[in-house]
């Protein structure tokens, strides 16, 4: 039987939640040495080889997509080295088990042709399963920002955690947690672009600072169409916010109707700079579009298809 060495909990993250605790010796000659089950009556933990066909997937799994190329690479490694890190499951009725964490390892093991897999068997209720699955994914997988944000939201709502507690669980400060959660307030089309990595987390954080949805969507489309850098987007946002702040405190010139005021605001949004609309009594007038630099002028001319 393989020997096991007890170690203390880390105080946060998956290790503390699992109380692990157990560690396995690395495989020798590519063969995983775990072949028997060891029971710990103290925390109701066991480790042993389980038939893959007896394992059901985790209904609380937050990850919806897995990189097929990465799975194939992992499966090739498992064929040669064996599975070094066991998955974690909980016992169900009969000979059935339910996956808690390690779905990527389980999928790769199936691809590698394994019929059995080493696993920790734990006692866990539904809430603990959800928290374990979320924390493992956040810590070990390259989740996109929206998946992380959704995982954080689920932990807050379904695990009854406060943001400070959540930060301790995942090893992030409260500000970082808040920034991720704010992404979920963006329009769905922008969230999809973040998920699909068409725009970065930096772009998204800049967009969050724009209050009006139509302006967020306009800047988002500019990022997609022109490949704007995060710095350029931040400049656009500052310019738009500056215009909005000034418009709140500056009285509109006498004789400018509500329709013209709205048109002036819409133009300021489109060009991301202060636009002045002058209208005379005879209906004639002018539009002034200031620019801050030659690059800014080029940007405005592009918007005008010049």
Helix content: 40-55%
Name the CATH class of the largest domain: Alpha Beta
**Count of domain modules:** 3
CA-based gyration radius: 28 Å
**Strand order across the largest sheet:** 1-2-6-4-5-3
- What ranges have pLDDT less than 50 throughout 5 or more consecutive residues? 1-43, 248-254
What tags apply to this protein structure?
alpha/beta; two-stranded antiparallel ribbon; 49% helix; Conserved hypothetical protein from pyrococcus furiosus pfu- 392566-001, ParB domain; 8 strands
How would you describe this protein?
Keywords: Chromosome partition, DNA-binding. This is Chromosome partitioning protein, ParB family. Belongs to the ParB family. With about 300 residues, the chain is an alpha/beta fold. It has 3 domains: about 15-135, Conserved hypothetical protein from pyrococcus furiosus pfu- 392566-001, ParB domain; about 145-180, no CATH class; about 185-305, no CATH class. The protein is about 50% helix and about 10% strand. The protein is built from 13 helices and 8 strands. The protein has helices at about 15-20, 70-80, 105-110, 125-140, 145-160, 165-170, 175-180, 190-195, 200-210, 215-225, 230-250, 260-270, 295-305, and strands at about 40, 45-50, 55, 85-90, 95-100, 115-120, 275-280, 285-290. It has a 6-stranded mixed sheet with strand order 1-2-6-4-5-3, sandwiched between helices. Strands 7-8 form a two-stranded antiparallel ribbon. Strand 7 (about 275-280) and strand 8 (about 285-290) form a beta hairpin. The chain starts with 12 loop residues before the first helix and ends with a helix. Mean pLDDT is about 75; it is low at about 1-45 and about 250-255.
